[in-house]
Design goal:
It is built from no helices and 19 strands. By secondary structure, the chain is mainly β. The protein is globular.
Length: about 210
């Protein structure tokens, strides 16, 4: 483990996330640290509450994305930059850990997929790109842009056209709406090597422009 500290203070953080009463910090060397309330195991360490960041061992993996919410935490990472495994830890009273149970966890645990194997066992979620926690539900976006949610659903926050909680990630529905036909009409290379793209509707009303570096 490489320390994320320079003398007394932390200087190499690249991502932070705050839950109800705990904090996660990810350093540029892909290590993760946690501090605060650990009454539900949400720090992912074998300890009580802590008042300074402690290293979180997420199954020996490098961590690329973190999220704290309520009394739970999520970590995305792996042993290779192409790995996209997702782990959760902490309070699970509404199924927000996505592990097909409501048992709290104090050790980071792999999230289940909604797909089952040939013998009926739930597979493990292995294509997570970004995760974000609410108070009692978790949202996961895959690399292909699809979205999955798990946990409390009393207000329809899982987006699956129900108000029924789920203990495993469910695929978020999409409302059918009329969309504009977009045409890429201009790609301009700039002197600083950036590229400007302009997208317009068929009647040439420009609605989207971005610069790529």
């Amino acid at each position: 483990m490489v320390s994320a500290y320079d003398d007394e203070f932390m200087y190499d953080a690249v991502q932070v996330s705050a839950g109800k009463a705990h904090t996660l910090i990810r350093s540029k060397d892909y290590n993760t640290y946690a501090t605060g309330d650990n009454s539900n195991g949400q720090l992912g360490i074998d300890s009580g509450d802590v008042t300074s960041p402690k290293y979180v061992d997420v199954d020996g993996n490098s961590i690329y994305n973190i999220s704290a919410g309520g009394n739970s935490s999520a970590f995305i990472g792996g042993t290779d930059v192409n790995d996209n495994l997702i782990y959760t830890v902490g309070n699970n009273g509404s199924g927000q850990l996505g592990i097909d149970s409501v048992i709290n966890k104090s050790t980071p645990t792999r999230v289940h997929d909604s797909v089952r194997s040939d013998v009926g066992d739930l597979l493990l979620f292995d294509d997570a790109f970004v995760a974000d926690y609410g108070s009692q539900h978790l949202t996961i976006m895959k690399q292909d842009g699809s979205v999955y949610t798990t946990g409390a659903n009393g207000y329809g926050q899982l987006g699956d056209n129900t108000t029924i909680k789920s203990y495993i990630p469910v695929h978020v529905s999409k409302e059918e709406v009329d969309t504009l036909e977009l045409q890429n009409v201009e790609i301009k290379e700039n002197s600083d090597n950036s590229v400007d793209e302009s997208y317009v509707t068929p009647d040439y009303l420009e609605i989207y422009r971005r610069s790529i570096y």
